[in-house]
């Protein structure tokens, strides 16, 4: 119920749509019951049961309107119209009355469905928007623990299940009980004895259905989880298709996917069997009740003659009319269990806490003036420390290169200064201010990042360079591309800056993608540049062009360069040599060469390799 109330709150901004949806469904329930009552006058005419009333009954007033008056006025009309116009005319009027009431019933049903559709679509959009905003706001570390496919599944299919389930339940729990109540009121007015049989059906059916469906939530949760795993497997297969084919791993990947698919099949069959059993069970119980009514009511007509045949036929129709809403209510038990299973998965994302969220009194910085200081920091992703008691000062305008073997903690420093993670011990300051106390948006506004793998979005060249800037001018984009040595190849593409780059930049070469990524960083024009092995994945020619672009970009900026190829950082103001999370040497290129230590050995190793 808590989950139900929470998601129902998303409908509050659209209360008028909800109001009309409920109103029209109430009218639908009322006319569903009345539609059978309108059959009585027609059947009375057919069977010749209509009591002859020759004097128009006096209207008792709205507050005293009763069943007797309604019967008398109908009987008066039948009597006078039959006398004046014949039985054919009366029967035609009766049929038109039945058709008109059924027409109103279906019009109200249609309007109720339309307003509910509008409400569901609006709510679905709002939940989608909120969960996407949440996904973007969560730290990078969150997605090192969650599979991307599972998160995508929660943000798409699970939300749809929740939306359809809970909002449909609102109508089910309003319309169907009212349908039953209106019908029972009419039935009790017709015969209280026959009506008592109906009360044996609803509670017994509900009890039996609850036994059948009690495991549906648990199994539905498992289905959603396996669906997320399958989506992750699909996403991984598409992303790594080249590797899969190169290693002839198609059969292995296909078999793994089939295994997940079969798990979902088995779980779906279990849920389906339980869900399928509820409908025929409730219908069988209903028909059993109808059979009892036929026997008991038949005796009342034929033996006791305490009810007219036309009234008994209508009563049977009303009794059967209860079956549909009763079945809907019993099915709602299955539905709400499935909805709860999906809701819990969605809520887990929505309620995820961001450990890197800004403090309430976070400072907003507008520039970088003096220095960056790593003050005795230590950090670990899991159990083992990646950085230990690390200290380094980077003055404004200087280029600092970080070198060392893989796993020495170089890229971790880039993740920490941009606050993708937070240090466990010590602090990082910019102009003397701890970055934990700085507004994250203003902190990252001071930084541009060029990573080893240039991530481009499936958009145009221009929009990738001007990422996040909606009013970027062509001149500014072109100037950034020129600094990044990208303008020459961009202008030769058929559509130039309006050319699509493809999924993940697949229509461009590695060097071209990297230069667009550099142009993106240049366009941002931040005072601090972070280059994380920006040339390590490139061939010699591309590396030369990209290195020129990097040098253009770093001019008059503070730069942190994480380097794999040492030839690219020989002009750095300071080279910091790292090993197992600690600084083992630092100084200029020539100074470190003269030391003949770790850096000297690394340079010699790369010279031999080349």
From TrEMBL:
Membrane topology qualifier: Multi-pass membrane protein
Key words, A-Z: ATP-binding, Membrane, Nucleotide-binding, Transmembrane, Transmembrane helix
Subcellular location: Cell membrane
GO CC annotations, alphabetized: plasma membrane
Pfam families the UniProt entry points to: ABC_membrane, ABC_tran
Predominant subcellular localization, coarse grouping: membrane
Domain ABC transmembrane type-1: 19-338
ABC transporter domain residues: 372-605
Residues annotated as transmembrane: 20-47, 91-111, 194-213
InterPro entries in alphabetical order: AAA+_ATPase, ABC1_TM_dom, ABC1_TM_sf, ABC_transporter-like_ATP-bd, ABC_transporter-like_CS, P-loop_NTPase, Type_1_exporter
Taxonomic lineage: Bacteria, Pseudomonadati, Bacteroidota, Flavobacteriia, Flavobacteriales
Top-rank taxon, per record: Bacteria
Keyword Nucleotide-binding attributed: yes
Record-linked SUPFAM superfamilies: ABC transporter transmembrane region, P-loop containing nucleoside triphosphate hydrolases
Protein name: Antibiotic ABC transporter ATP-binding protein
A GO term, aspect molecular function: ATP binding
